[in-house]
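fyi for ur records
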Amino acid sequence: MVLPCELNVLDQVSELASSRKERTISREISFSGSGLFSGIQVNMNLKPAKVGSGIVFQRIDLPGKPVIPAHVDYICGTPRCTILAKDKAIIQSVEHILSALAAFDIDNLVIELDGPEVPVGDGSALPFVELLQKIEIQEQGSTISYYHLPRPIYWADGNVQLIAIPSKVLQYSYTLTYPGHPLLNAQFHTLVMNSERYIEEIAPCRTFSLYEEILPLLEKGIIKGGTLSNGVVIKGVEILNPDGLRFANEMVRHKMLDLIGDLSLMGIRVVAHFIAIRSGHFSNTELAKRVLACIKGANN
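which gave:
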């Protein structure tokens, strides 16, 4: 049963302990590839943006070139990925690029796309990290503050559980469990966030699926762009990818990658220890909504 959001979860927000200058990229950079679900070839341009504009996606292939903010208010679905929409414009699979941007503390950016889905690359955030490493990240004239939670915020539904607890550092912990599965019975990873650790431990970790789950989706054309070059496929105790795994617990690390990207849709910087058990895009974004709503309520 889903736990309701209590109005008094946060009586107040503690004083902001730290702040920094807002950040954007120094120049435009581009990336191209196919979408995992659509199979459509998409060109993506990352462009610097002005102070206070946040991160936005822009569908330059549609009339009027509509803009969709990277914010929980614009989530329209979470079917194996996170989808944003505004009016009739949608953008699918936003979580991997947003995860990389969060790791680099990029606040303001325009992400132009000439198709409906962010390119999947190799199924991880590494292609986006490598793209960002080619340029400078620039500080801007305005200051951004960090919010700290004075008490926990929960979300739970059955065996899926998430909690944000007060912390002096930004930390993520994830427990993945497929009871009885020979490889996924239990995996755990935790990360105190900084860009160096993210690049080393999280960014290379690819999306994954069980063979029994992915085969019907491929046969029905739901995943038109899926191959062993952009995701890990597990059949029993066998990894079907010729190159094997990048980490023994690559699967739980990818779940953390998704969690970081989904939580970035709060649109503010929250310092907490985010702990997830068996969560996915829906539950991740529901926690993001709850944290954001409680912080806003406490400030009004």
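Residues 129 and 199 are 7 Å apart (CA to CA). thats all i got for now
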